[in-house]
């Protein structure tokens, strides 16, 4: 936070020294922090900050904003707030972010959604939630079956998977 201030970002909400419950006073905590007027020249504008820190970069238009986002070496998530369906669709299609929110913050962590950071925001072989998470913790099994009608079995003939009638072997 101090680096962001020194580099010229406007500290709108300072998360240093948050109020915490008594039993947590010896811990290390940071509260919600908001920087405004962040630029690419600032380290808080280039690096991925893990914590409740929001950096607002102001742009003149949609294309400039999308270019700045996609030029980042990180691509964890991206969000757009708009009432324009064209820009919402374009944003979702063209952003490099692995998690995309339209008029909602990044929609995780919910188990059915993947935590899908891209570029240098992704580590390992699988994403930790969503389809990859289920695949990692699931042992799959393929079962192939066909059922014969009782009438067919009794008559010595059965329907096969392709709809033809086949005779059963003679019982010994």
What does it look like?
- The structure is a single chain.
- By secondary structure, the protein is an alpha/beta fold.
- The chain has a domain at 2-110: Aldehyde Dehydrogenase, Chain A, domain 2 (3-Layer(aba) Sandwich).
- Helix content is 23%, strand content 17%.
- It contains six helices and nine strands.
- The strands form four sheets. It has a three-stranded mixed β-sheet, with no helix packed on it.
Helix/strand layout:
Elements: H1 2-6, E1 10-13, E2 33-36, H2 43-46, E3 53-55, H3 62-70, E4 74-75, E5 77-80, H4 85-94, E6 99-102, E7 118-119, H5 130-136, H6 150-154, E8 157-159, E9 165-167
Parallel strand pairs: 2-3, 5-6
Antiparallel strand pairs: 1-2, 4-7, 8-9
Please name the defining characteristics of this protein.
single chain, 172 residues, alpha/beta, Aldehyde Dehydrogenase, Chain A, domain 2, two-stranded antiparallel ribbon, 6 helices
